[in-house]
Predict the 3D structure of the following.
Amino acid sequence: MNKIIECVPNFSEGRDRRIIDKILEAIKSVDGVKLIDVDPGKATNRTVVTFVGAPDEVCEAAFRAVKMAAEIIDMSKHHGEHPRFGATDVLPLIPIKGISMEETVEYARKLGKRIGNELGIPIYCYEFAATEEKRRNLANCRAGEYEGLPLKISNPDWKPDFGPDEMTPQVVKSGAIALSSRNFLIAYNVNLNTTSTRWANSIAFDIREKGRVKREGNSLTGKIIKDNLGNAVYTPGLLKGVKGIGWYIEEYGIAQLSFNITDTTAVPLHQLFELACERAAVRGIRVTGSELVGVIPLKIMLDAGKYFLRKQHRSTGISDDEILKIAVKSLGLDELAPFDPKKKIIEYLMEDQTNKKLVDLSVKQFTLETASESAAPGGGSVSACMGAMGAALGTMVANLSAHKKGWEDRWEEFSNWAEKGKNYHDEMLRLIDEDTMAFNGIMDAFGLSQKTDNEKSIRKVAIQQATRHAMEIPFRVMQLSYESMEVLKAMAETGNPNSVSDAGVGALAVRSAVLGAGLNVKINAGSLTDKEFVAQMLKQVNELEEKTRLLENQILKIVNQKIIGV
């Protein structure tokens, strides 16, 4: 899945499980959407739901959930401790992977327009989706709550962004919705070797954006300084986009710092952890670990792992699994309970465990599958595999060079090469399955019905589109394989001399990947009717093959000179 967004709607029902379950069923009725968490609260009479998936599917699930909530929740009878003004009270969309905030805003507004038009529910857009500055703040949009909605909705300054601007029977029942696109929020606790809530609060106040109350004289007991309106004046904390308090957890017998990171683009998880360690140490307190509440995007965890690897002067061009182990151990995320990345990282939760991938097979299983009577996997997937193997060898030499005794001052140089090689390797691993999927796409197109002229036309177009895609995938393998040779050449020239033969083998592997993938481009070219596209593609194929052979010869010349002096 290339694009992933998260949706965290809050529904104004936290006590009646039958109502909650009907809303959940509406969400789960959309294929491709993964329901991650359901958190009902009796006192607040509110349920927070979290689900993820591709943007279109998530928006469809959100629409169905809003529709169901509007049908079965009557806001005129709702009471709870939490501020609210609608059956679906807030509806935020959050970019997770492969999508920008700007794109997410477009999806949010499109969803808001659909809800307003089709369901007749007023929509107020806040945060990044806000249409004016005063609406960015959720509290402003929801001010007056449900009871104040008739006055708000009739005010020209607070006309809804979408939907009706009058109290129709539907609005009386459903209320309004605050819809947004916002940054991912991390709920994160830091464990301390103390039971003092006072010290925990003091550390949290150092760090959180709000800071601490300003006092006269003694910072702990002095008189609170107030402004002209009688409000307490605060000394700002060290990190913007962070909320925090200290508390004592009886279950664990320790005090914790409890944080919400509201802007993960500005405050990396590891930065907050390191600052907590620093501010705790000032008070003679030690951070013993931390706890992640809910789920987290993969990138944030990888960034943390790479930070600690760089701090140790170690290469970051290692597998994601190894980087995650470093992150978990460095942050102490497994101190209070086991930390399972498969259950805590959004991208891993989204993986389809029922659809077994070629890339997850053992080498033996992959070769046996290739040797079977099935036409796929075939030469395209094998070419991608050879490319991945070649890039992996270049990455290996870079990692060995980064750890070579006496070369400590060059660790960063080789770490950069290793990370570059890993990126090539990871992308070509993905293309192993992508190539087989492209072949299956052609077979599916040929299997379409052709009983009528219209069906024949649809089938013909589908075959052409699938064939074009089946050319583009191996061509991408060619490009990546050729580009990865820069890593192999650099490692042959400057890497650990004891591993120079590995760089040579890598060059041979990626050369074979380029030529093999090229054959797959060519064999599909004959079936494509777009001759201009075919001619351009074959020209590029020939150029890549020629450049690859030249670069391969250069690398092997370097390797042989270092091995036997010839």
